[in-house]
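Exercise 7. Predict the structure of LX15B lipoxygenase from Zosterops hypoxanthus.
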Amino acid sequence: MRRPPPRSKAALSEQDFLEALPAMNTTATVLAVLWVLRNEPMDMRPLGHYPDRHFTEGAPRQLIRRFRRRLR
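Solution. The predicted structure, encoded as tokens:
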């Protein structure tokens, strides 16, 4: 908002209302950021999912199994 909210319940004119709204470029920037943040990247993996076998020892694999059970 470009102006503070009204302090009284008096009716606002259309001009007062329009002047309080954020600038169009500010709104467009916020919408662009929200669009980028809501889209999942193509290389996103779910938490606890490890497709490459980096963890081959028994102890880390047990921890991964326990972690996946807790996620479920």
